[in-house]
Amino acid sequence: MVIAYIVAGALLYSGGYAPISMWFLPAIGIAFFVAVLQKESLLRRLLYIFLFGIIANGVILHWTSTYVGAVPWLLLTTLETTFLLPLALIFPLQKWRYFAFPSVWVLMEFFESRFPFGGFGWTRIGFSQADSPYKSIASVAGVAGLSFVTVLLALVFHFLTRRKYRTSLTIFGFTSLTVLISMALLPMQGPRTINVLAIQGGVPKLGLEFNARAAQVFHNHLNETYLALKNGKVKPDLIVWPENAVDVDPFTNADVRNAIDVLVSNENIPIILGAVKTFGSHYQNVSILWDPHTGPSSIYIKNHLTPFGEYIPLRSWAKNFSPLVNDVTDFSPGREIQIHRIAGVHVGPVICFDLIDDQLLRKTAIRSDILAVQTNNATFGTSPQSKQQLAIARVRAIEHQKSIVSISTSGVSAFIDNLGNIEQETDLNTSAAIGAKISLQNGTSISDRLGNRVEAVLIFIPTLLWFIVRRMRAK
């Protein structure tokens, strides 16, 4: 019966993420998890937490096995699960330990997002809450605040099952008050706007060899752009192409460079495009602003490279697990933030894996009026990866109070407002163009102003209060 509860809880938890995407399921799953662990020994708690994590993370991250097999997926699932194990130390929950539980959960996500190799915070529970009624919390307390509140909601469910209605109402009332305050603090839409045309050109073939015909990927985006401009009723102020849309170096390939020059100069519209740039014996994943008059005017080099995707850590060890390691040429990371400027509008480029880096996103958002998330999902086929990434982008839009253009080579692409709502969305694995007038926010969200201090408060204050009360009662 205990095993059944753990399995059910893990499956419910995973249901908060695409393809199911029901925001309330993770909290119910955690409530199952809490109920089981309350009466178990430390060893059994560790085993049950490991089982819960393996199932939940395994389901959520199953897309990582697309085209590369089960071994990388199982290794990543196991790594993510190990971060949950310290939760066993605070059970059984009682009195002030209940308040420590969401703090420790946020602490585990803190480490998950930073270690190893820069972290992989994809499964942070806050990223599953883009449709929740309390999502505005992110604008004040970031993703960590969303995770904290979701775990509090799990405790509400737990107390309800134990018929502790007063405690449930107290926690629910506190959470509701916090949500109302965060909603009241949301800024109004800015008076300035920009017309953006985003191009999802498609790829000739999904999979690891999507760029085997890089010229065709480029021409797909070029042709889709001309078609959209011909059929469009409003001339855009900016065109945005995704990551890897130009998967050859436009600085060394004369044909590609000339085609881009002709597009922007004839149409008199700047374009932000994703390209691969040679850098000695390595490559760089870049976002380039191509101006109609000056050509390439600013270049952002992707800061947070994808481990085992764009570079191989521990290469000699990793090749024992996958023969595909030898096919990966290491990319070289950028070290600086670069903001694209178009007629007074500051556009912050975010390339794929950058999206889950809290510090990098905060630095970029503070200097931007709008964020352009350029990504390539072709390597994950038709899996839920793209939808999960879009959910993360929606939470980031709320957190930083910036509208987002999320554009992919093969989908899903979308325009997202600063409240996390999707204004337009493409289908997966299609060629498409979407255009919209986007509101600009040039202020800074409370979450960005507070920075890591909110996370520190969520982690340490409830736990500190627990220790203080415990010592006072001991005396």
What are the main properties of this structure?
475 residues, alpha/beta, Nitrilase/N-carbamoyl-D-aminoacid amidohydrolase, 2 domains, six-stranded mixed sheet, 12 strands, globular, cell membrane, transmembrane, transferase, N-acyltransferase activity, C-N_Hydrolase
Q: Your description of this structure?
A:
There is one protein chain. The protein has 475 residues and is of the alpha/beta class. The protein folds into 2 domains: 2-186; 193-444, Nitrilase/N-carbamoyl-D-aminoacid amidohydrolase. Helices cover 44% and strands 16% of the residues. It has 14 helices and 12 strands. The protein has helices spanning 2-14, 25-37, 42-60, 70-82, 97-112, 138-161, 165-184, 214-231, 254-267, 315-318, 358-366, 385-400, 446-450, 452-474, and strands spanning 193-200, 238-240, 271-279, 282-291, 295-301, 340-342, 345-351, 370-375, 403-408, 414-416, 422-425, 432-439. Strands 5-4-3-2-1-12 form a 6-stranded mixed sheet. It has a 6-stranded mixed sheet with strand order 6-7-8-9-10-11, covered by helices on one side. Helix 12 (385-400) links the parallel strand 8 (370-375) and strand 9 (403-408). Helix 6 (138-161) runs antiparallel to helix 7 (165-184). The longest helix has 24 residues, at 138-161. The model has no long low-confidence stretch (mean pLDDT 90). Keywords: Acyltransferase, Cell membrane, Membrane, Transferase, Transmembrane, Transmembrane helix. It is found in: Cell membrane. One of its GO terms (biological process) is lipoprotein biosynthetic process. It is a multi-pass membrane protein. Residues 194-440 form the CN hydrolase domain.
